[in-house]
Amino acid sequence: MWEQRYNILRPERTATNIRTYCDADLRRLLNVATLCSRGQRISHVARLSEGELAQAVLAGSDDPHDYARQVNALLAAMLEMNEHQLTKVLTATIRQLGFETAIMYVVYPFLQRIGLLWQAGSVNPAQEHLVTNLLRQKMLVATDSLPLVAPATTRRWVLYLPEGELHELALLFMNHALRSRGHHVLYLGQNMPLDDLKVVYSTYQPHAVCCVMTALPERDHVQAYINELARLCPECELFLYGGQAQHQELEMPPRASRIRLMTDFLALADERRLK
């Protein structure tokens, strides 16, 4: 409708008359949507040049709770591979909202939008890697600033990713959430062989083990993996997060449970802190 009524985009067309949109079109739409969400009329916004659009977005509301504006700003910076602007928006958002709120209400929706754009072929691996590494850096810095907790004085957690699994952002955020609530965490990170957990379990004696399964193990091997994890860690709680752990046909061993949403994990971290 915007294209037909206001000539807001001029997409290329294939030989069979199918519209194709480029990154510049997507950036323009993000800026237009941001201004319209602030109450500006589309008839006015459509007349703005690219430079005027960008200036209007930057000069807009400074409300830190305008999450959609911040998500759109991150998306636009990512599409331009503008590391400076990405860092600037993320830093300001974390400073205004606090680390945990910024992650839950801005970064998570941002990552969900990236996932949709990836499926549509609008995001390339370089753009995704830029975002992932920047977020990883922010999470490490935020976690490093937390006070140290002695393992003997609180609940002890082991956090890890299965062998071959590299999607670390959710695990890094869990690490920060637990540490900020006074838990002790043995963070093992990416690509952890399951057999090595036996030594970790006997030495560290954790109260809980949390594993994030985003892409691995493969679906046909998840049940066997969970059963083996339960065998290696018989006396502690097991928490499983990620898409591969959510299949309905999986049977959870005693002391094992699935976490569907990150908000559920935060509630769990609060609850266990009181015990």
TrEMBL record:
Pfam families: B12-binding_2, MerR_1. One of its GO terms (molecular function) is cobalamin binding. Residues 1-51 form the HTH merR-type domain. GO terms for biological process: regulation of DNA-templated transcription. This is HTH merR-type domain-containing protein.
